[in-house]
C-alpha cells in the first residue's frame, strides 16, 4: 500500500506544477481580458457620444460605424474570454455536484487517479488556450477599431 501511495503521490507531484502554471495563465488572461473589456466599453461609449455630436455624413459615418462594430466584436470576444467555463467534472464543479457532504468526503479521500489529474490539466490548458485566442482576436478587433476611428477623424476634418 505504501508503494501504491508513493506512486500516486509521484504522479500527483508530476502534474502539480503544470496545473499551477495553467491556473496562473488563466488568472493572467482573465485579468487582461477584464482590463481590455473596460477599455473597449469606454471607447465605445465615448465614441458614440462624440459621433452623435459630430453629425458625420458619407464616408466618415461609414468609417465610424465600422469602428463601433469592431469595438462590439472585441467586447463580445472579451466577454466570452472572461465568462466562466462550467464544463467538466473537476475541482469545485465536481464538489458542487456531489449529492451530499458525506459523498464529497468519500470522494475527497478516495485514491486519486493519475488519468483524472491529467484529464483535469488537459481541460484547464484547453480553456486557457481558448481564452488567449479570444483575447488575441479581441486585440486585433480593437486595432482595427482604432484604425477606423482615426480614419473617421481624418475624413470628418476633410469634409469641413
Shape verdict:
elongated
The whole-number mean of residue pLDDT values reads 87
Our count of domains comes out at 1
Query: What is the H/E order?
Result: HHHHH
Number of helical segments? 5
- The parts where pLDDT drops under 50 for at least 5 residues are 1-8
What composes the largest sheet? none
Quick structural summary:
With 160 residues, this protein is mostly helical. It has helices at residues 2-54, 59-82, 91-97, 101-109, 114-158.
Description:
The chain is mainly α. It has one domain. The chain contains 5 helices and no strands. It is elongated. The N terminus is likely disordered.
Characteristics of this structure?
disordered N terminus, elongated, mainly alpha, 5 helices, 160 residues
What is the topology?
Layout: H1 2-54, H2 59-82, H3 91-97, H4 101-109, H5 114-158
Helix pairs in contact: 1-2, 1-5, 2-5
